[in-house]
Design brief:
The protein is of the alpha/beta class. It contains eight helices and eight strands; from the N terminus they run βαβαβαβαββαβαβαα. Helices cover about 35% and strands about 20% of the residues. The N terminus is likely disordered. The structure holds D-xylitol-5-phosphate (DX5) and zinc ion.
């Protein structure tokens, strides 16, 4: 994988424009048929693919690494949104960038020096996201907000798909919405389904990670379209 493949104009989006996007999470896909599963959601209109990386340290689970992402890269034009649930994002940023990530999100809980992490990710030509766990306050990221492309609010404890949505985090979503620019994305991750996506959209999230409710559905394309439509309706009703 060459540097040229990153931030490629070939991608379906650069995530800069403000619109509602459902980002299917690969974690819930059928790992025996990843290429086909990715193609299904891309054909259904998904612009962003969420890639959950877990190290068995920051979270009590292990998922996949840069090797798998590199294999998927030539198969898709979707924007690769890599969510690093790992203790050492600075150490691994280059590998995930080279694998073809378009954005790398790190957790604020793992570092005392977020600027160093941001600089390392940018050095490898990727967009930068910062994530906060359900009980982490937005004060922890206030100072770096102008420097990131995306804020990811966890609406479950990171580590596993299929958990229930924690509605308390919507307060943080509302507060962050007020603080972010139009070219910065506000993403929510965990327990997103046709009901919770309405609450999340009304609170101001614009990017919705959905694992189980897309790939766990017998018809992932229909599930993706339904979620997208539901979020759009929630916004137009709220206006
Ligand atoms: C949880 C991950 C999520 C997960 C979401 O640690 O960060 O992205 O895949 O899965 P669902 O949509 O099933 O809650
Ligand atoms: Zn995630």
């Amino acid at each position: 994988m060459t540097d040229k493949s990153r931030n490629d104009s070939n991608r379906l989006t650069d995530l800069k424009t403000k619109q509602l996007r459902v980002a299917p999470s690969l974690l819930a896909a059928d790992f025996c048929h990843l290429k086909e599963q990715v193609a299904i959601v891309e054909r259904a209109g998904a612009e962003v693919l969420h890639l959950d990386v877990m190290d068995g340290h920051f979270v009590p689970n292990i998922s996949f690494g840069p090797g798998l992402i590199a294999h998927l890269r030539p198969e898709s034009k979707m924007f690769f949104d890599t969510h690093l649930m790992i203790d050492e994002p600075t150490r691994y940023a280059e590998a995930f960038a080279k694998a073809g990530s378009d954005l790398i999100t790190f957790h604020i809980e793992v570092t005392k020096n977020p600027i160093e992490v941001i600089d390392e990710i940018r050095k490898h030509n990727c967009c930068v996201g910062v994530s906060i766990n359900p009980t982490t306050g937005i004060d922890t990221i206030e100072a770096i907000l102008p420097k990131v492309d995306l804020v990811l609010v966890m609406s479950v404890w990171p580590g596993f798909g299929g958990q229930s949505f924690i509605a308390d985090v919507l307060t943080k979503v509302r507060q962050l919405r007020e603080r972010l620019r139009d070219d910065q994305r506000l993403e929510i991750d965990g327990g997103i389904d046709p009901e919770t996506i309405i609450q999340a959209a009304a609170a101001g999230a614009d990017t919705f990670v959905a694992g189980t409710s897309v790939f766990g559905d017998p018809a992932p394309a229909d599930a993706f379209e339904r979620l997208t439509r539901t979020a759009q309706t929630a916004i137009s009703t709220a206006k």
